[in-house]
Amino acid sequence: MQKPDIELVECPRDAMQGWPRHIPAAQKIRYLNALLKAGFHTLDFGSFVSPKAIPQMADTHEVLNALEPDSATSLLAIVANQRGAEDAAAYDRIDYLGFPFSISPTFQQRNTNSSQQESMERIEAIQELCLKTDKTLVVYLSMGFGNPYNDPYDAGILLQWADELAQRDVKILSLADTVGLATPQQISFALETLIPQYPAIRFGVHLHSSAASWEPKLAAAYQAGCRRFDGALKGIGGCPMAQDDLVGNMDSELMIGWFEKRGVHTGIDQAAMALCSQLANEIFA
Fold it and tell me: What CATH number should be reported for the domain holding residue 141?
């Protein structure tokens, strides 16, 4: 079987967490099990966070226990502190722990109820836990291309925090365009600077975009050497801690079509994807 040329990360957790209508666990389980058959590299399926903060994710334990055990797709869970990381690390089925580190101090406090310094200390503890439990830590550099809070931002701040995480031996860094502010030029500059500088790190992108902006952003990331891409079916999703009006995730179906049109092998099973698309239409009606 041909190995995919890229790593596609599907993020139903990102799509579901801020959805205004409660999604029953049974519906989540059916959807996630369908996605596990579609050929994605990784499935960002849920989060081990306070149910008071993200009520939609309160059933992550129940959902996880009902997922297909034999899929080749890896599972990623989002955590925001040591307790959540310990809960997630107890599951053999989970391969990746994702931690959102914001280069915006305002958003870091809103998203994880911790300062940037406290969050960096959490990252160090979670990294140690990952090494002990054979997990891999993925750090998302959120608000990586600007923020709506008037916090200071320039490319140098992004590069500085990326270096801080590189010094802590984080092996996967995903540049997150949390509220869809990134320009193709910003994406190109960041990746063309970081990828050669840190060859031991796998850099990904978690891009949010409108119907008009997704293609230039995706092209910029791929042409700059990125080979790990997050998306969500139907372009739904966003962090409920960010602001009221969110730009959705980049639509996985558009991304897959863009790659395959250019001869980039994605490993996606189109028949399985058709069912996933149907289920997404039902959930996010």
Answer: 3.20.20.70
- 204, 166 in Cβ contact below 8 A? no
Q: Return the number of other C-beta atoms located less than 10 Å from residue 193's C-beta.
A: 15
Q: Tell me the two tokens of residue 144.
A: 């990586």
- Read off the tokens for 197: 């500088």
β-bridge mates for residue 78, sequence order: 47, 98
Task: Copy the structure tokens of residue 21.
Answer: 């209508």
| Helix 82-89 vs helix 116-133: crossing angle, to nearest 10 | 20
Is-contact 14 238, C-beta < 8 A? yes
- What token pair was written down for 77? 């869970």
CB 280 within 8 A of CB 20: no
Q: Is residue 193 part of a domain?
A: yes
Each residue's pLDDT tens digit in the chain (285 positions)? 799 999 999 999 999 998 999 999 999 999 999 999 999 999 999 999 999 989 999 999 999 999 999 899 999 999 999 999 999 999 999 999 999 999 999 999 999 999 999 999 999 999 999 999 999 999 999 999 999 999 999 999 999 999 999 999 999 999 999 999 999 999 999 999 999 999 999 999 999 998 889 999 999 999 999 999 999 999 987 665 555 455 789 999 999 999 999 999 999 999 999 999 999 999 998
Question: Which structure tokens are listed for 13?
Answer: 């957790």
Domain that holds residue 12: 7-283
